[in-house]
Amino acid sequence: MNKRFFSHVSQCLRWLQLALFTALLAPAASSAADHSALENDARKVYQNLIAKVPVAKTLSKDAVAVLVFPKIIKAGLVVGGQYGDGVLFRGDKAAGYYNTSGASYGLQAGAQQYGYAMFFMNEQALQTLNRAEGFEVGVGPSIVVVDQGMGKSLTSTTANDDIYALVFGQTGLMAGVGLQGNKITKLRD
Question: Second label for 60, Cα 20 to 30 Å away, from 3, 35, 68, 164?
């Protein structure tokens, strides 16, 4: 077989091991130092996103809050999972720390790392984030994932949905289609 193919498979297996290892060792409670490092990372990623992606800058002007997950690790082989921590910004201040995790099943193989930002466009959508059981993506307010095509035509006048999500920084190799469940929960301080 092709050396390049085996190189990709080897890289995917390393990502899968890293994702599983991270998920197993993820602490239940995080320290103030962890929050500080996470906040710095999320703030840096968010500022970079606003500076380089015009639709992010447009959405940030009208959003009541933005939830930034700077790094999410996703891996799977038929059954998969994803995990990452993020920061909710209201204005220029950190207003909370959150975790996203999910499981998927279906035709899938590989591992990847990425980040995403969720722009909450109204208070009602933001309130659903802090429900006791957590925020389940796909249940409740409408979420629109903004791709490059939509990003070119979206303006503050045409942004009528509750939440807009931008995915960024994708690395790794993940192939396949799956049914996904993703839940966001507030981390205890």
Answer: 35
For the CA atoms of 27, 18, 73, 175, the dihedral, rounded to the nearest 10 degrees, stands at -150
Task: Tell me the C-alpha distance between 38 and 85, whole Å.
Answer: 8
Domain ranges in the chain are: 3-186
What is the number of other CB atoms lying within 10 angstroms of the CB of residue 106?
A: 13
Backbone angles phi, psi at 124, to 5 degrees: -60, -45
| Residue 189 to residue 177: CA distance in whole angstroms | 36
Interval 126-154 mean pLDDT: 60
99 contact partners, CB below 8 Å, separation of at least 6: 83, 84, 85, 86, 184, 185, 187
**pTM of the predicted model, to two decimals?**
0.73
pLDDT at res. 5: 59
Number of residues assigned to the chain: 189
Query: Higher confidence at residue 32 or residue 187?
Result: 187
Q: How far apart are CA 76 and CA 109, in angstroms?
A: 5
Structure token pair of residue 40: 């710095």
- Cβ 112 vs Cβ 174: under 8 Å: yes
pLDDT computed for residue 181 by the predictor: 62
Beta-bridge partners for 99: 85, 185
